Amino acid sequence: YIRIHSEGKSWLKSERLSRAEELLDRRQFCRVHRSYIINLHFLKTIEPYSKESKVVKLANGTVIPVSRDGYQRLRELLG
After folding, report:
1. In angstroms, what CA-CA distances link 15 with 3, 30, 56?
2. Which of 13, 40, 55, 56 has the fewest Cβ atoms within 10 Å of its own Cβ atom?
3. DSSP for 25-77?
4. Of 12, 17, 52, 46, nearest to 31 (Cα)?
């Protein structure tokens, strides 16, 4: 199952996250962690969490962990 959050609403869908990732525009959405895909329009900051890890803060205040690969993808997209 995946949970989709949009405009203050939430939906639960029987789908793999990898399938959702395939359907989304890769210029607007980024998989930052094995459990999270974010909409880059709502990305506020990328911050260090510990020595080797980072988190993203979204416009609504949500904090999401970022994997090493996810950080690389973010850097490439944000150039």
Report:
1. 9, 17, 24
2. 13
3. -TTTEEEEETTEEEEGGGEEEEEEEETTEEEEEETTS-EEEE-HHHHHHHHHH
4. 17
Taking CA atoms, 55 is separated from 15, 22, 65, in Å, by 25, 23, 4
Reported for 59-67, long-range contacts at CB under 8 A and 24+ positions apart, including other chains, are 64/32, 64/33, 64/36, 64/38, 65/32, 65/33, 65/36, 66/32, 66/33, 67/32, 67/33, 67/34
pLDDT, tens only, 12-33: 999 999 999 999 999 999 999 9
29's tokens: 């959405």
